[in-house]
Amino acid sequence: MGSAESFESAAPITALLDSPPIRELFGEPAECRLDFFGSPQENMARDWQRTLECLRSPDTPPLLRLYGWKPWAVSLGMYQSAALLNQERCRERGIAIVQRPTGGRALLHAEELTYAVVVRLSSERTPRQIYRLVHERIAQALEGLCGVRLELAPAPPLVERPPAAVCFSSSARMELLASGRKLVGSAQRILGNVLLQHGSILLGDAHVLLAELVDLPDEAAREHLRSQLRERSTSLAQLCARPISWWECALAVWESFCGVPIPGTH
C-alpha cells in the first residue's frame, strides 16, 4: 500500500484535534488532514487557500496536511522561473511543473511524502520556532521508522553558500539531515500573522531525476548536479535498508504531529 494507484478513489481523512502535541505546535485546536494523491495545481491551491482562510477568519482552524502528487511534478519556489527547467524533457517524462506559494528552490515531487502546516504566529510561535518544532516532529516520526539518528543542519559558513537552484543539492539551517545528508527540505511564507510551511520527505531516490530536467549547458554540468544530489541527500529507503511506503510514512508523521493514530487505523 503506498502508490498513487492504491489511493485512486480514497476519500480524505480529516480530524479536528486538540491533543497536547497539537496545542504545542498550533496553540489551538487544528485540523489534521490526509489528502492522499492530488494534482500539482490542487496541492498548491489547497495549501494557499487555507493560509488565506486563516488570515481572514479566526474561526478557521490551523492545519496539518499530508499528501502525495499525481502526476509527479517539479515545484518551483515563488521567485524562480520556469526557464530553470527544460520543459521538453519534462513533457517527455510526464513531469508537471507548478509554482509554489513559498520560497525555496526547485524540487521534484516523486518518491516522497509532502507535509504542510498553516499556523497563526504569536510571540510564542515565531517562524524560526515553528520551523524547528516541525522538523523535530518529523525527526521523531522517521527515527521511529528507521532507528537512525537525525539532526538539524547548522548554518553553513557564508563562503559555502553560493546560490543553489535545486533543493536537495544543499542544506539550509535547521533542515533535517542523516549523517550530514539532507532528508527533508522545507520552505515558508508569512502572510500577515499566518505562516505556511510545507516540505518534502524523501522516501526513495527518484528526486535525483531532477538533474535530467534542469536546463543545463552540457552533460558535464548535468553529471555534476546528479553527483551533488546523490552525495548531499538521502532517503528513507537508504536509511532503513528497505522500501518505506507513502502510507507507512504518513502513519508515522501523523501520529508524531497529532499524538493519536490516523482515524480508522487502530
What is the H/E order?
A: EHEHEEHEEEHEEEEHHHH
The average pLDDT score comes to 91
Which strand-content bin applies to the residues?
Answer: 15-25%
How many H/I helical runs?
Answer: 8
Give the CATH architecture. Answer: 2-Layer Sandwich
Described by strand count, sense and barrel closure, the largest sheet is:
8 strands, mixed
Task: Walk me through what this model shows.
With 266 residues, the protein is α+β, with helices and mostly antiparallel strands. It has one domain: Bira Bifunctional Protein, Domain 2 (BirA Bifunctional Protein, domain 2). Helices cover 32% and strands 25% of the residues. The protein has helices at residues 20-26, 40-56, 87-92, 127-146, 210-213, 219-232, 236-240, 246-258, and strands at 13-17, 30-38, 63-69, 73-76, 96-99, 107-109, 112-120, 151-152, 176-178, 181-191, 194-202. An eight-stranded mixed β-sheet has the order 1-2-3-7-11-10-9-8, sandwiched between helices. Helix 3 (87-92) links the parallel strand 4 (73-76) and strand 5. Helix 4 crosses helix 8. The radius of gyration is 18 Å and the shape is globular. The model is unreliable at 158-163 (pLDDT under 50).
